[in-house]
From TrEMBL:
This is Putative ArsR family transcriptional regulator. The lineage of its organism: Bacteria, Bacillati, Actinomycetota, Actinomycetes, Micrococcales. Gene3D superfamilies: Winged helix-like DNA-binding domain superfamily/Winged helix DNA-binding domain. Residues 246-262 have a biased composition (Basic and acidic residues). Residues 9-20 have a biased composition (Low complexity). It comes from Paeniglutamicibacter cryotolerans. InterPro entries: ArsR-like_HTH, WH-like_DNA-bd_sf, WH_DNA-bd_sf.
Length: 262
């Protein structure tokens, strides 16, 4: 028998199960912040669906995070028609990115600045190249399991997430008539070296080159967190990988029809 002060767990909604008190509020707010990091740009309704909170509860936490300068609103046009009122989407601010973990970056930035002054920009470039060469060496065996470019992009996304970059992939061009227009956007919602890369853009350049080598195709950087974007986005043209397969299939069908007995 439950008292009036003890809610029946059979009827309590997820939004009501959030721990009470200042510590509970802080833990719940951290969950909202991490969800914005992973899914941003994301709407309040989408966050509610993911976390099981009511819209009012989500907006209360988002308002608090906004006042703390950890999240900000991005107005996004309707992707389907481009018309109508822009939707409000939430993303992490620069301060929010820093809160998620940029330990020792001030020391690293100062050290690289000293290296640049003592040995020149080429020394900093060589340092960045060695860093991403080591990353490639770790990632390459993992990507070797893939049988297609798209699968390699997904495995690269998984590897980046394991290293704290909160990566994901999005299919693009699926509604286009030409198979060669198919692409994958490799997105990184967090950059552990964001402040360092802002001071030394060569780190972003070296990372992009590493992606090209790992995927075996030229990729294009659309945005970076260090450059002021809300997410690091890399364009991967997977259509070039799939178009020859479709052409080969059509050729086999054509040959089969030609060889069919009359």
């Amino acid at each position: 028998m439950y008292s009036s002060h003890e809610p029946d767990p059979a009827v309590v909604t997820p939004a009501q199960t959030a721990p009470a008190g200042p510590e509970g509020e802080e833990r719940t707010r951290d969950r909202v912040l991490f969800a914005v990091l992973e899914d941003g740009p994301v709407s309040a309704a989408e966050l509610g669906d993911r976390l099981g909170f009511t819209p009012a509860a989500v907006r209360r936490h988002l308002d608090a995070l906004s006042r703390e300068g950890l999240v900000e609103v991005k107005l996004v046009a309707n992707q389907a028609t481009g018309a109508g009122r822009p939707a409000r989407r939430y993303v992490l601010s620069h301060r929010g990115q820093s809160k998620m973990g940029n330990d020792y970056l001030d020391i690293a930035t100062e050290a690289l600045s000293e290296l640049g002054r003592a040995a020149g920009e080429k020394a900093v470039e060589a340092f960045a190249a060695r860093r991403f060469a080591a990353m490639e060496q770790r990632y390459r065996p993992r990507l070797a399991q893939a049988t297609s470019l798209r699968e390699r992009a997904e495995l690269l996304s998984d590897a980046l997430s394991d290293d704290g970059f909160v990566a994901s992939t999005r299919d693009m061009g699926t509604n286009h008539a030409s198979a060669t227009m198919l692409s994958v956007q490799l997105c990184q919602g967090h950059c552990p070296i964001q402040d360092l890369a802002r001071e030394f853009p060569v780190f972003c350049e070296m990372e992009t080159q590493s992606f090209s080598r790992l995927l075996g195709v030229d990729v294009r950087r659309l945005s970076t967190l260090a450059g002021g974007g809300h997410v690091c986005t890399t364009h991967v043209p997977v259509g070039r990988d799939q178009a020859p397969q479709r052409a080969e299939k059509r050729t086999r069908i054509k040959i089969t029809k030609q060889e069919r007995p009359r």
